[in-house]
Design a protein that fits this description.
The chain has 340 residues and is of the alpha+beta class. It has three domains: 1-118, Beta Polymerase, domain 2, CATH 3.30.460.10; 132-201, Orthogonal Bundle (Hydrophobic Seed Protein); 253-339, no CATH class. It has helices at residues 8-14, 31-36, 84-89, 112-118, 133-145, 151-162, 171-182, 187-197, 213-221, 226-236, 240-258, 262-271, 278-291, 298-308, 312-316, 321-339, and strands at 2-6, 23-27, 40-41, 48-50, 57-60, 62-66, 74-78, 99-101, 106-107, 120-121, 148-149. Strand 6 (62-66) and strand 7 form a beta hairpin.
């Protein structure tokens, strides 16, 4: 029985990047032998175990055979006779198919080190085409490392799209890869790769992407109509926090840009729930600034600060219903006028 560090940990170490998690592959062992050594089984679809001390993941070497559509359409074979090279061959990219043994020796049967030096994303084998999520992974790695995509790999990805394999992408997996790519150093590279592959999942950004994940996603939605944003969020299963900011950006982009009078400013603040959700309103202004860098949004910040200082609780004393709302609005409007 032999254990090897594989995948991202080896790749990142070779690139001089911090290694966060280490994954191991075990050759020549059975599940019973792993349990006997104190490993805890945790894998559902294939044999994966947690080390009794380090809690790192150890997976038995395996091969995969396509048996259906999508990323779950595989038959897994894990047995002591599966070699390390067999296991590495099923991986997506050569840069992720490098292993390191316990002595530090590198095993690189598909020349991943050379592709790392050249900055190239290249598929390991034609089996790449069996999992449509791999297109998104290539796009994400392009965004992370700024690497180029091998011409043959790009050709293969186009064939996958044309054949309808990507029609079976699962929304949760799409969001997992897309959201990671959106937060990488070169997110624009992800969109370039997806466009080159012919995979039309999301609109291309029309401005530089920056900020938190909700802010970056809202920048994609800035120029879209509300129905389009709703459909996009539903298709990607975007989390509520992301969806809410994107919907606000789409719905109120014009008012954010053009509100100047105290009445207009208060109306925008109320409609965007700026008093109850000040952090989200700050994110909304961040989206507006990225999208319209020449516009001045300080008037909205000043208006919100002035209006938020009004003691709504004191005004509510002795009043009821609509009367309280009128009092609070009037006081906030006067505060905005005074701050202008």
């Amino acid at each position: 029985m032999k254990a090897y560090i594989v995948g991202g940990a080896v790749r990142d170490e070779l690139l001089g990047l911090p290694v966060k998690d280490r994954d191991w592959v075990v050759v020549g062992a059975t599940p019973e032998e792993m349990v006997a050594k104190g490993f805890k089984p945790v894998g559902k679809d294939f044999p994966v175990f947690l080390h009794p001390t380090t809690k790192e993941e150890y997976a038995l070497a395996r091969t995969e055979r396509k048996s259906g559509r999508g990323y779950k359409g595989f038959t897994v074979h894990a047995a002591p006779d599966v070699t390390l090279e067999d296991d590495l061959r099923r991986r997506d990219l050569t840069i992720n198919a490098i292993a390191k043994d316990e002595s530090g020796k590198l095993i690189d049967p598909f020349n991943g080190q050379e592709d790392l030096r050249q900055g190239v994303l290249r598929h390991v084998s034609e089996a790449f085409a069996e999992d449509p999520v791999r297109i998104l992974r290539v796009a994400r790695f392009a965004a992370r490392f700024g690497f180029s995509t091998n011409r043959n790999t790009l050709r293969l990805m186009r064939k996958m799209v044309e054949s309808g394999e990507t029609d079976h992408l699962v929304a949760e997996r799409v969001w997992q890869e897309f959201s990671k790519g959106l937060m990488e150093e070169h997110p624009e590279r992800m969109f370039q790769v997806l466009e080159s592959a012919g995979l039309k999942l999301v609109p291309k950004p029309k401005t530089r992407l920056g900020g938190s994940l909700p802010v970056r996603f809202a920048l994609l939605a800035w120029s879209l109509e509300e129905k389009e944003v709703e459909a996009l969020c539903k298709r990607l299963r975007a989390p509520n926090e992301v969806r809410e900011l994107a919907m606000l950006a789409s719905a109120y982009r014009e008012q954010l840009k053009h509100a100047k009078k105290p009445e207009e400013l208060l109306d925008v603040l109320k409609r965007t729930d700026a008093f109850r959700r000040p952090e989200r309103f700050a994110q909304l202004l961040e989206v507006a600034r990225f999208s319209t860098p020449k516009a001045d949004f300080t008037r909205l910040e000043k208006a919100r600060a002035a209006a938020a200082a009004v003691d709504a609780g004191a005004l509510a004393a002795g009043g009821s219903g609509k009367d309280i709302a009128r009092r609070v609005d009037a006081a906030r409007l006067e505060a905005i006028r005074s701050a202008s």
